[in-house]
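Same chain as my last thread, 259 residues:
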Amino acid sequence: MLRTHRRKSVLAAAALVATTMLLTACQGGDTEDSGKSTGATASDSAAKGKSDDGGSGTGAGSESPSGERGSKSGVVSGKWVGTVSYLAPGKYTVTDANDAEQAFFTSEDTDIEGAGKICGDANGQAATPCTEEELEAAAKKGFGATVDVKDGVAVSIIEDHSDSGGGNGMGEGERSGLFSGTLGYMAPGKYSLSRDGDERAFFTATDTVINGAGWICGDAETVTPCTEEDLEAAAKKGSVAVVVQVEDGVAVTIDEEHN
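reply #2:
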């Protein structure tokens, strides 16, 4: 009886050991398979992520700019004096005395100042701020002005007082205003401004600002401060187009017209 009980105990213990080993083996296999499965999933995800990122990166890198900056490669900057004409809403031209035409655009920041034709009073001592609507209406008829352009867009459009028909002849230049024409030499410190057969005299002072763009001094690429000697030499040669801001017959600024 005792021997039989011991035999049953041994058999039960052996069965328990075998079951434990079997379970351990099964769990190890499951764990290995699970690891392989997880590894494959992570690898697939990584590959997919790399592919997605690569696709997005290529797309972003190959995307071309809007072209707006590139389209400005042919536009110009400078100051022009001439007749302003209308082309289309927000687009105008300025034609100089040599019939050279330059197109330009306006923006909300463009400074538009009139002296009788765009807006304002031809007999006024100061230019009057005008609206885009007034500019468009005047440009459809044409008027003389100085147009300062940067990257194809007008920074300022200043109507020429001498074009406003206010009945003020060229004369000695007693009145103040912005005038344009061909520079001429009369005497030390005294010059003339000729336009359409009329001539206006004006004087310079020690604080007169003289800006050249290739003819008075400097070059056509940049505006350069010039001396009175530079101005006198250029005036004696003639054919230099300038814009002169005059106050009481004395030039405050003399800007060479951009050529």
